[in-house]
């Protein structure tokens, strides 16, 4: 209690690294766009995929063995099953669960009314105002981990904030895990690209949390894509057989570029995504009943001119609202959306698209939002300024969600009307004095001065202010405390495993 | 029918001036954020203002006479009245009504499930990429009227797209009206700053539409602000006694900078705005029962550092959702929100703030959205590129609202699943061929190419693309047809009245 009270008091002085809140507890109602008839139609399509179309589980005989023994119908590598049975298996996954952070004050609850924001994942390039666009490297990665740790509006560290392309593919997961575990104390994800890398992630998490804590809690999660359409490869099933088997979380995300990996229709693509993710959810529950699971969705639209994916467009906006409702009906935590854009730079396009994408993500009730900050260029590039600009806007969404509309007696301010004449002003009223300090979200990067003051300040655009801010944050960075013995054991593990594994660059 | 069919067919070839649709008929459900208990509390506060606090009607003895004769309680210039009576008067205003355009294919229906987008109103400055920031003038005004006329995502011309500061204040309404009436055939607003100017607007509209059409239809509207808090001056009541008396529309908008013109609380400010606007609505119905009325709301948050208004922030976002619900309960068409920002330039701040402001405006069900495009610098400046960038995004909102999620059999694409293997793609499927051309909103200004193609194209940011687009549009502009006799009569009216009135610059 004492520690929580201090964290809360610290909010106004905003020390580096102190989150405004470890995650969002939503008070705003959900936005339900579909009526019962549409919901039933969508669910019927999902069930039709389970029963008639099926989903291929490829390159992992153990996965097919698990399905066969459980009673699914196997035809080659296509798995079909009774829809009611799949839904019953999914119902074994928790509606909400907590992922512990090594600093327990930063643990996040995922599912239900809770919403958690995490940064971009997987970009091979980085970009900043002075350094320009370049391949990601470990130096950039560490800076991005520090910034994510320090930013009060990011609740979760994510994992591959950029690809550290200067480290061999076969070994970079060690350095990424070590960075998250030592430079930050927020929760984070682990590797999934290969089964041994997933196992390394789980093993290193056990060093940090200890066996007993890990036996009884989710402390790390893996985030994987299905190979849409309707294909689940061994990257997915091996990650499940590592993370889920150990009681750790799995986030399973069909990435559907509508018209390519799914039909050129939002309804069909949303249903297909539900079917793919729920089929893997059922698989996780065969591997370990009760293992934490997050139903993922990543649906993008397409440019007719080039076939390139587009973001922040009306079709994915509507799909966010629809999938939110379907996930709640299925009782599964949801990952969808993010601050997504196709723009190459930090211009108005980037911001319009990111805001529309994220606004719908927020209202849809997405419980875990990867890519909530830093995404550029269709996900190919992590922007340092973009990370800080997006994260500044996340504070606004956080306030919308966690406050809604206060209708307490104090909010109605009846005493103020006794003080103020018609045409007068409330600036000095007692009610204003009592409430002004907490009345408004104070963004760090929006300039609301008049044009003269703004010009006197150097006519800086938002990107320039963001550049200054992230540099200032890094100057003020202080590593969170970590037990020396734990740090040594992590270092030892990394050194030993790096010895055992040959360098590989693919 | 034939003309409507042609307009619809033309949509894909996008001729200048052809709107995608004359207005939005919403299929997406409304987003209701307030439960019954909160709604009742807010309405009780509104009623308390009607009955106990009252609203001052100042400087217009005729307005007080009308209230007194109708039975309101008058104390000095404060009008108080039974809440049930005020609500009964408001119920005489139509839930929805049509404003005719001189081209009837562009007439807009305001209220109910319909949403209408109009550009910025009232900025003294303009800004474009080559010309920089400068006072608005008639040349800019005419260009902005042409662009609004040509843009398919703007349904309504608004009125003061910028202030033409090179024309005396006492005469500029003539030139603005003449520009809207001759350069565009979309519906527009009229002047309100002085009673004779309102009358000129109504008289010029009568020249365009004829007396009989005007007697039986809304063909022009006035948009006025109350003097919040709780003060209605003669600008408002004289406009009502001109527009409403003639059966024309009134939009009445409390502008409340929360903490200054209202208590530092969203709930109190929303209730105050409802009370002010509904009180004027009741007044319009005393002047002429059944006169079209739009309940306005313009609520902004404040920077604690400077006291400057801020936009796109969480408090006005929530207020948009709340006022939408309250307006629907009151059965009154709503104006709120817009693409609002405090940014001085067309940077990421401008776009983030505009998008969050407009996304909530869209979902809130705002029936008439002034400032939906072109707003910069807290409303002090109309941006040429901003107008075109915002309007491009309006097309996305239009699709979200008017399409929602299609769950027809065709949308579920079951035949496509027979064609496509697991891990394959839907690009060439028969379903894709049948549907791809209408599947996605195609923005004009978003670049989704890869970084190499984008660099080859000159690495242009969105603002540069917008600059090229509005210049191209102006090159392609063709005035809509207008009867010579009408144009002559308008010119004659303007010439005669300009003779009668002395130049005045305030």
UniProtKB/TrEMBL annotation, chains A, B:
Keywords carried by this UniProt record: Methyltransferase, Transferase
Pfam families: MTTB (PF06253)
GO molecular function, one term: methyltransferase activity
Keyword Transcription included in the entry's annotation: no
Record region (Disordered): 1-20
The protein's Enzyme Commission number: 2.1.1.-
Membrane-crossing residue ranges in chain numbering: none
Gene3D superfamilies from the UniProt entry: Trimethylamine methyltransferase-like
BP-aspect Gene Ontology terms: methanogenesis; methylation
Source species, domain of life: Bacteria
Protein family: Belongs to the trimethylamine methyltransferase family.
Protein name (database record): Methyltransferase
């Amino acid at each position: 209690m004492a520690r929580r009270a201090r964290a809360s008091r610290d909010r106004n002085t905003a020390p580096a690294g102190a989150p405004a809140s470890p995650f969002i507890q939503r008070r705003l109602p959900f936005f339900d766009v579909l009526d019962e008839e549409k919901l039933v139609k969508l669910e019927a399509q999902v069930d039709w995929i389970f029963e008639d179309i099926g989903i291929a589980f490829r390159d992992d005989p153990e996965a097919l063995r698990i399905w066969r023994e459980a009673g699914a119908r196997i035809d080659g590598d296509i798995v079909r099953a009774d829809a009611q049975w799949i839904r019953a298996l999914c119902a074994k996954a928790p509606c909400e669960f907590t992922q512990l952070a090594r600093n327990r004050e930063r643990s996040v609850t995922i599912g239900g009314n809770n919403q958690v924001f995490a940064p971009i994942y997987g970009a091979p390039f980085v970009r900043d105002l002075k350094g320009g666009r370049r391949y990601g490297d470990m130096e950039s990665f560490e800076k991005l981990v520090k910034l994510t740790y320090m930013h009060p509006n990011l609740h979760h560290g994510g994992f591959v904030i950029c690809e550290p392309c200067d480290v061999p593919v076969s070994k970079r997961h060690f350095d990424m895990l070590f960075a998250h575990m030592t430079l930050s104390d927020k929760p984070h994800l682990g590797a999934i690209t290969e089964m041994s890398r997933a196992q390394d992630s789980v093993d290193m998490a056990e060093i940090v949390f200890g066996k007993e804590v890990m036996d009884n809690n989710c402390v790390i999660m893996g985030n994987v894509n299905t190979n849409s359409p309707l294909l689940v490869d061994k990257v997915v099933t091996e990650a499940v057989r590592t993370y889920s088997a150990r009681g750790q979380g799995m986030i399973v995300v069909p990435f559907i570029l509508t018209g390519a990996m799914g039909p050129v229709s939002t309804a069909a693509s949303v249903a297909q995504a539900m079917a793919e993710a729920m089929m893997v959810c059922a698989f996780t529950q065969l591997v370990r009943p009760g293992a934490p699971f997050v139903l993922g969705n990543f649906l993008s639209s397409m440019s007719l001119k080039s076939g390139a994916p587009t973001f922040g467009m009306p079709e994915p906006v509507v799909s966010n609202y629809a999938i939110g409702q379907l996930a709640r009906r299925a009782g599964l935590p949801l990952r969808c959306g993010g601050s997504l854009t196709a723009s190459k730079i930090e211009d108005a396009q980037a911001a319009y698209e990111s805001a529309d994408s994220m606004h719908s993500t927020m209202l849809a009730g997405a419980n875990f939002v990867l890519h909530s900050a830093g995404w550029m260029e269709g996900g190919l590039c992590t922007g340092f300024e973009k990370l800080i600009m997006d994260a500044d806007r996340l504070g606004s969404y956080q306030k919308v969600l966690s406050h809604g509309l206060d209708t307490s007696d104090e909010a109605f301010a009846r005493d103020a009307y006794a003080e103020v004449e018609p045409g007068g002003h409330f600036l000095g009223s007692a009610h204003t004095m009592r409430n002004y300090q907490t009345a408004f979200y104070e963004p760090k990067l929006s300039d609301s001065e008049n044009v003269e003051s703004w010009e006197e300040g150097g006519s800086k655009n938002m990107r320039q202010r963001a550049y200054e801010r992230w540099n200032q944050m890094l100057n003020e960075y202080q590593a969170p405390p970590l037990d020396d013995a734990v740090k040594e054991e992590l270092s030892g593990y990394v050194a030993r495993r790096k010895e055992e594994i040959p360098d590989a660059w693919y």
